[in-house]
Amino acid sequence: QVQVVESGGGLVQAGGSLRLSCEASGRTFSWYAVGWFRQAPGKEREFVAAIRYSSTYADSVKGRFTISRDNPKNTVYLQMNSLKPEDTAVYYCGVRGGISSIVYRDYDYWGQGTQVTVSS
27 - beta bridge partners? Predict the structure, then answer.
């Protein structure tokens, strides 16, 4: 069983920045793929970014968000710059063994989510 904990959400003005963290348990963290997804009220959970050995991004966040990982710390980060009100959502971190995926159902372990609110 892998435990996943997200942190770093908060309230920020449009144009501001936040850095989210996703810490996962397990001795083989470097083998895991980690994906960030978000869900706004009344909407489906949508892909944001994912990383295993390389990274991939949703078009809506390319150039603004950066995903990175620190394997010795068992942590993946999501640096979010130039935030917009439409980025407001609960952000979830998913973990799976093997290759990364943009499909949330492919991930096996999830954290509780962290709220990001961007005011205009």
Answer: none
Q: Which residues contact 64 (CB under 8 A, 6 or more apart)?
A: 80, 81, 82, 83
Q: Indicate the Cα dihedral angle 20, 26, 31, 33, nearest 10°.
A: -40
- Could you list the pLDDT tens digit for every one of the 120 residues in the chain? 899 999 999 999 999 999 999 999 988 898 999 999 999 999 999 999 999 999 999 999 999 999 999 999 999 999 999 999 999 999 999 999 989 999 999 999 999 999 999 999
**Which one, of 28, 43, 52, 39, lies nearest residue 6 by Cα?**
39
- Rg for the chain (alpha carbons), in Å? 13
Say which DSSP state 8 is in: -
Here the tokens at position 63 are 């150039």
Q: How far is CA 6 from the centre of its chain?
A: 8
- What is the token pair recorded at 93? 């971190």
Strands 114-119 and 10-13: parallel
Q: How far is CA 75 from the centre of its chain?
A: 11
